[in-house]
Write a structure and sequence with these properties.
The protein is an alpha/beta fold. The protein has a single domain, classed as TIM Barrel (Alpha-Beta Barrel), CATH 3.20.20.70. The protein contains 10 helices and 9 strands. Strands 1, 2, 3, 4, 5, 6, 7, 8 and 9 form a 9-stranded parallel β-sheet that branches. Strand 1, helix 1 and strand 2 form a beta-alpha-beta unit. Helix 1 runs parallel beside helix 3 and helix 5 runs parallel beside helix 6. The relative contact order is 0.17.
Length: about 375
């Protein structure tokens, strides 16, 4: 493997607000439904019979469990394009809501109302939302994740996105811009290795950068490596090498500088922690406190529970960070530069202030 030039060795780069700090978040992923209009060629998240949406009472039990497991983030996960799905509409009406949006808003309100001494914060991962929907949810919404996925329009005619109408680059960009208009902090990014060219990856970074220049709402750019999964149309496809993935991370860092966090999932790449730091990663993503049975994406090959424990992984992250003169710290779903009433109106004046003592505890070594 060729050596990626360490990001810290690049000269002349102005340091951003997160300089010297490597972050991660302890997350409790909660799948609301596996119903989804998309059938991406690399994903096995959708199922034919997704089951019922959890009731507010069931969600409340999950919130108590999340606090007990030490999570700070609740990631609400659902498939895309299901607002008018007859089964979804029937379920939310059974629970007393007039729409799927009202159901989601109520859950966000419940998360905001958790115990102030052990507060939980929301990350919504349910696909594109309209500006009207975002404006209704905004007082209770901490942050969103909507992946651009790719800027390669030819993927709409190939296995990756042939049966995924909401994955067209134009549709994803519209969703990203809606988040900016609503003033909601957003994590977006690309999936590396689904058939896109290296040139299209740079094009994706340029699209994201232009959106951020317009609204300043993109708090992190996430890079996720494609892994072929059995039972999917792309099960026999080849994944990119570690070297190519590191090169893509370095490309993203050079493009965005220190202004935006570059995020990867540490539990998918425990053997690459040092190399990822050298390439410019500044955030190790969301580490699930629930284990292997509750992952949020049909694309995830490994979890912390299947490879290494969270304690062992954070110890490795801390050690590799310290070797490079960096400090590892937990973070909120809304990143530190966005911890302001403008970006998170529901988080002030008390929620974030009372939570900082928990978030800044030293990393426990094992």
């Amino acid at each position: 493997m060729s050596k990626v030039r360490p990001w810290g060795a690049l000269s002349g780069e102005k340091q951003g607000p997160m300089a010297g700090k490597i972050t991660y978040c302890l997350s409790y992923p909660l799948v609301l439904t596996r119903a989804c209009e998309n059938r991406c060629g690399y994903c096995r998240f959708p199922v034919v019979e997704p089951g019922r949406l959890p009731s507010p009472r069931t969600v409340r039990r999950h919130l108590h469990e999340a606090v007990g497991r030490g999570a700070t983030q609740i990631e609400l996960i659902a498939g895309e394009g299901i607002t008018t799905d007859p089964d979804i509409v029937a379920m939310v009406r059974y629970y007393g809501f007039d729409s799927y949006q009202s159901y989601l808003t109520r859950i966000l309100e419940m998360i905001e109302a958790t115990d102030r001494q052990s507060p939980l914060f929301s990350l919504l991962n349910v696909g594109p939302l309209s500006l009207a929907e975002l404006c209704v949810m905004r007082p209770y919404l901490c942050a969103l994740r909507i992946m651009l996925e790719s800027a390669d329009v030819t993927l709409q005619f190939r296995e990756a996105h042939r049966e995924a109408p909401s994955k067209s680059p134009d549709h994803r960009l519209e969703a990203i811009l809606c988040c900016g208009k609503a003033g909601v902090p957003l994590t977006t990014g690309i999936l590396v290795g689904i058939g896109e060219s290296r040139a299209s990856r740079m094009k994706a970074f340029e699209i994201i950068a232009r959106a951020n220049e317009r609204y300043g709402h993109i708090q992190a750019v996430r890079l996720q490596m494609f892994h072929p999964l059995s039972g999917t149309p792309m099960a026999e496809a080849s994944e990119v090498s570690d070297e190519e993935f590191l090169e893509t991370v370095a490309m993203a860092r050079r493009h965005f500088g220190s202004r935006v966090a570059i995020q990867i999932s540490a539990d998918e790449h425990p053997h690459l922690i040092g190399g990822l730091l050298d390439a410019g990663v500044s955030d190790f993503g969301d580490l699930s406190v629930r284990g292997s049975g509750n992952q949020n994406a049909g694309q995830c090959r490994k979890t912390a529970a299947e490879s290494v424990s969270i304690a062992s992984l954070t110890a490795t992250m801390a050690t590799e960070s310290e070797k490079r003169g960096l400090v590892l710290a937990r973070r909120f779903p809304v990143y530190e530069p966005y911890c302001a009433a403008r970006w998170y109106p529901g988080g002030f004046p008390s929620r974030l202030t009372r939570a900082r003592a928990v978030m800044h505890e030293p990393i426990q070594r094992v």
